[in-house]
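Researcher: Structure for this, please.
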Amino acid sequence: MTPPFSTPARRGAVLLAVAGLALTAACTPGATPTPPTQKSTSIGTTVNELRGPDGAPLVAKVVDVATAKVAAEGTQYNVVVETPPVTASGFAATAVAVRPDGTTMLAGLPEGFLAKDGTLAGDATFGSYFEGKLSELSRAAALPVGAYVTKDATVWVESLTADIANARWRIRVAGTDGGVRTIAESKDLGVPGNVHPAIAAPKPVVHDGRVYFNSAYVEQDGTSRVQVLSVPLEGGKVRVEVKGATTPVVFDGGVAVLRLGDGVTEDGAQNPLDTVGVSVLLDGRYQEIVSVGASANPGAQGTIADLAGGGDTLTFTRQGVLYVVDAADGSAVAIGAPSDTTFLGVQQCGSRVTWSALGAGAGQLVYDVDGETLWRVDDAAVTGRSLCADDLLAWDHTDNWSEKHTVTLVTRWG
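Model: Predicted structure, C-alpha cell format:
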C-alpha cells in the first residue's frame, strides 16, 4: 500500500531520532537480554525461577516459533490503513495509539522542532488520523510520547524536553466534547531530574474512571524510586497505588504492574531491570500472579519486560522467551526466540498477542490464546513497536532504512 503523502528524508529522520527514541525507551540495549537458542518442543516444561500465584514453579507448554503458520492478507487479516510518515501539513508523523474503528493517534514534528542545543524549539502536533485527514487535538512545544484511548477519552503523555530521561512531562486528556485538560505534571509530583529511560516517561492506562501511570520519586534516603499512581479522568487528587512498581496495564477486572526489587543503579536509582514479579490490583488489593524465585540474578538477564494484558491472561518477555500466563491457575505458554532473533514490542488485546521478531527471522508474530495458534506475518522491515485495539493489530515497519522512514500498518484480524 502506498502512503498518501510524500516522505522527505530529513523529516523522517527527525521523527525516528526523537519520537522513536521516546516511544521505545523501555527497549534500550541494556534492557534486552541475549535470547537463548530455541529448544525442541516439549509440553509441561518447568520454567526455572518463575513461580505462579500459588508459589509453585511455573509450568509452561512450549511452542516452537518455527511451527508458526503464515498469515495471509485477505484471509487471516485485512489492511485497514497505512499511516503516513508525513502529514499533509508537512509534519513528520508516527502513530502512538490506534482506535477500534481504525483511527490512529498521530504525533507530528515539524522541521526545526529541535534546536541545536537539543531543546524543543517548535510546536509538535497530536491528533487523530482517519481516511487521510488529521484532526488536531493539541499543538504545543511538547513531544507526545505515548497514548491510551477508550470509547470516551484519549489520554496521552507529553515530554516537555527532548531528553526524556530528564522526566519533565505532563499527562493530558481529551474527552468526547473535544476539550483538553492536564491531569498530572511531573513538577507537581516530586519527580527527580534524571531518571532511567526505561521508566522516565509515564505509560498511562485507563481503568474504572481513573488513569494509572508510573512515575519516579525520591525516597528519604535520597535514592530515586518508581511507583504507580492514579488520578481521576476528570482530574483531581493523585493517589499512590503501589510503590516499587512500574508499567501498569489493564487486565481483566484490574490493573497489572511489574514489581521491582531493591537493586539500584550506580547513580542510586531503582534499577528498572531488577524485576521480581507481576501483581494485579483486584478487589482493592494487589495480588501476586507471577514471581521470580530467590535464586534469580537481578539485572538484565533476569528481568521481566514488555508486560501486556488482555482477558484473563498476562504476557511478558524474559531472557528471550515470551510467556502467556493464565492468571487464574498459573498455567503458561512459552515461545522462545531463536539465538539470532530478538522479540520486542509486545501488545495484547483480548485473546490476541502480537509482537515483532527482529534479526534473522524478522516479521510480525501473533499468538491466538483461545485458538492456541501461532501466526506469522512475513515483514522484514518491522521496527520492534506494536499497537492494538480490539481486533486491530498494528506494527511499525519501514521500506527504506537508509532514510529512516517508518509507517504503522493497521490490520483487522478475523
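Researcher: Any notable elements?
Model: The two ends are 20 Å apart (CA to CA). The first strand starts at residue 45 and ends at 51.
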